[in-house]
Specification:
By secondary structure, the protein is mainly β. Strands 5-4-20-21-6 form a five-stranded antiparallel sheet, with no helix packed on it. Strands 9-8-14-15 form a four-stranded antiparallel sheet, with helices on one face. The chain has a four-stranded antiparallel sheet with strand order 12-13-17-16, with no helix packed on it.
Length: about 270
């Protein structure tokens, strides 16, 4: 690392922070070398890093890795996140033209001039059990002219969070479709849980996210997740009092999520980790 370092401090929405040196370095990925990448070397890392060796910024901000290396990798990257509790395979990330999956459905990226670091998309609605959720309209997810509201795709957020009215409508529709299942107590931020102990096969309502130009059908494992070792599973969505909705990484598991920044679009390819 170069000697002309500067101090840096970065904090995150969950309260985690890192303090250390800020400098540039040449990074090597197999046979590809990328010079003068700005990065931080943290000396005091506190919060929810859980022993991680580092953090790769994938947002739209000027210091994120995709933005810094955009010319080298044609402004394209993708990742596929495996279920870390059920898979021995590693997650993967690809940069460059090879990152774009042929089977991906794409939705346009939106721009928020007030907050340019997030990947905003247009969510038109959600279906449960093959039917559109009543009371859940596109207006609940609209990004207004002042930069408020909207929906972002975020690999750093675990659980998808929807504005409170949208979440209540989705939750109630799912509860109706899963009324044949035995309920279990609430768990942490999850208010819709089920006791599936002793069952070898379970039928649950389908959940489809309807983005503009892309209908993303979620596997059941992406929205009904185990929360203990006794057979309790919870509906893995949550509400938020904020106007901003977030598509989190639990719902992204198993999809190759393609960020084609040159084309200003985000794509979702099912079964993308193979």
């Amino acid at each position: 690392m170069r000697r002309n370092t500067k101090s840096t401090e970065v904090s995150y929405g969950d309260g985690s922070f890192t303090f250390g040196d800020f400098s540039t370095e040449t990074l090597t990925f197999r046979r590809t070398r990328v010079a003068r990448v700005a990065l931080g070397c943290g000396h005091d890392n506190e919060g929810l890093f859980v022993g991680a060796a580092g953090l790769l910024g994938l947002g739209r901000g000027g210091l994120s890795f995709p933005v810094q290396t955009g010319r080298r990798f044609n402004q394209k990257f993708s990742y596929c996140l495996v279920d870390r509790s059920a898979s021995a395979k590693p997650s993967s990330i690809v940069f460059g033209d090879a990152a774009v999956s042929r089977t991906a459905q794409f939705t346009p990226l939106l721009k928020n001039p007030k907050l340019d670091t997030f990947y905003y998309v247009e969510l038109l609605g959600i279906s449960v059990g093959g039917a559109p959720v009543r009371g859940l309209s596109a207006s609940l997810f609209r990004l207004d002219a002042a930069g408020n509201g909207g929906v972002i795709v975020d690999s750093g957020t675990s659980v998808t969070r929807l504005t409170r009215p949208a979440y209540i409508a989705l939750r109630d529709a799912f509860r109706v479709g899963a009324s044949h299942l035995k309920r279990a107590p609430e768990f942490s931020l999850f208010d819709t849980c089920f006791d599936l102990s002793g069952l070898t096969e379970v039928k649950v309502p389908t959940v489809v996210l309807h983005f503009r130009g892309a209908d993303v059908s979620l596997p059941a494992t992406n929205y009904l997740i185990p929360v203990d070792n006794s057979g309790s599973f919870c509906f893995a969505f949550a509400g938020t009092m904020s106007g901003l909705s977030i598509v989190g990484n639990i719902q992204q598991q198993g999809f190759r999520v393609v960020y084609d920044l040159a084309g200003s679009r985000v794509g979702f390819a099912p079964r993308g980790c193979s």
